[in-house]
Amino acid sequence: MFLTDFYVQTYRDKVDDELSVARDVDGVLKLLGLPKGSHILDWCGGYGRHAIPIAKRGYRVTLLDLSPIHTRLAGREAREAGVKIRIVTKDFRKTPPRIKADGAINMFTAGIGYLSERDDLLALKSLRRALKPGATFVLDTMSPHYIARNYNPSGYTVSNDGSVRKVSFPRVYDFWTGRLISTETLYVGGRKEMVVTSSLRLYQPHELKELLEKAGFEVLSFLGSLAGEPMAIESKRLVVLSLRR
């Protein structure tokens, strides 16, 4: 899934609205609380949807992502935007310790939850080594409570330009493992082009707290949005604010 252009083809025009991205960036920078010129790691940062506007605001940015497709696109769009970001194409379980960032962000349910709990712990430990002591880490993921309350086993989207591209979502929640298993199919011109299956562990807040603490972070708060709203049962997002010990 993450080594193809599936995400770019199917979701980009749904999530790249300038106003919503600007709101996300406003919120995450406020949560980080870092002055301009600070070094921010966009961990599993994809094609630079947040990294590029953060760099535009005067921060030094490193973007790490597993997918060469995403990182090449991020590099091209950063150049077109007239900003410089450092790009690392790497498995997040092997985040280079030399990065030494002042803070890190992990946005839009990227990375954490798709592999095993052991892999997630390895990844978070490697992230810790890549941060300076006292660095702030903002993790933004799906709220398991919202998914449970609004569960929909299937659906589809059509791209904003009105093209025939569609994505179907047969989804099953596995109560034994806490995983949301999705088979997503991309159709172009009525023809099946790509099928991707994903399995996402929907961590409960207390489970993320335990995982982060094992990795060497101190959890400060759970929030319901990047705007800093308190976590509530109806919150769509689960945002975890922590410090690197």
Automatic annotation (TrEMBL):
The record's section on Pfam families has: Methyltransf_25
Q: Which CDD domains match?
A: AdoMet_MTases
The region annotated as signal peptide is none
Out of the domains of life, which is the source?
A: Bacteria
Sequence ranges assigned to domain Methyltransferase in this UniProt record: 40-134
Which protein are we looking at? Answer: Methyltransferase domain-containing protein
Source species of the chain: candidate division WWE3 bacterium RIFCSPLOWO2_01_FULL_41_18
